[in-house]
Specification:
Helices cover 6% and strands 42% of the residues. It is mainly beta. A hairpin with a 2-residue loop joins strand 3 (34-47) and strand 4.
């Protein structure tokens, strides 16, 4: 939609139009998406010692962004979501096995992605991973089994261990913004 800025300005004077060296005229201007009218005239009958007036009346339209830039479903380009990878296991040689947290790339109990790890694959973190959230209590909240950021997001975690925090691999991809992993 277009944004419409409308204006109506009036100015009164105790001088006559002749004394101000103006004419009783209407000046109509149009330029692109702006239109305005400037009118000078005598003020009849005299009101509170005012003998003349001028009025500027107009509208200016501001074009909207193209539909592709609107961010509305069906019009905008879909950004490919980014997902972090997490260590989910250790192989027979002691090397870490990682997998994306993208919920669409994980298996589930209904047969999706049968060769992929399950959505409910546990991921374990050192307890210190929560320190950055504890250090900003005005922004983040940590409660019994939940980590959240106001009304923006909440992620359920198992924070009842003394040395670790656990979360589901699929929840990490679904519930936590990717940018938090890069900090």
């Amino acid at each position: 939609m277009y944004l419409s800025i409308q204006f109506d300005l009036k100015e009164y004077s105790t001088y006559t139009v002749d004394q101000l060296e103006l004419e009783n005229t209407d000046e109509d201007q149009r330029q692109d998406l702006t239109r305005w009218v400037l009118h000078h005239g005598s003020y009849q009958p005299k009101f509170k010692n005012n003998l003349s007036f001028s009025r500027l009346l107009g509208i200016h339209l501001i074009k909207p962004l193209p539909k592709e830039k609107s961010g509305l479903w069906g019009f905008s380009e879909e950004k490919e979501e980014q997902y972090a990878e997490f260590i989910i296991d250790v192989d027979e040689y002691g090397d870490a096995v990682t997998h994306t947290a993208n919920p669409d790339a994980l298996g589930n109990l209904f047969g999706a992605n049968p060769k992929a790890p399950q959505y409910l694959t546990p991921v374990h973190f050192r307890k210190e991973v929560l320190d950055k959230y504890y250090q900003q209590p005005g922004k983040y909240s940590i409660s019994d089994s939940a980590l959240g950021c106001g009304d923006l997001w909440v992620m359920y975690v198992d924070n009842h261990h003394t040395d670790k925090v656990c979360a589901w691999l699929g929840d990490l991809g679904r519930d936590m913004p990717y940018r938090l992993y890069r900090q």
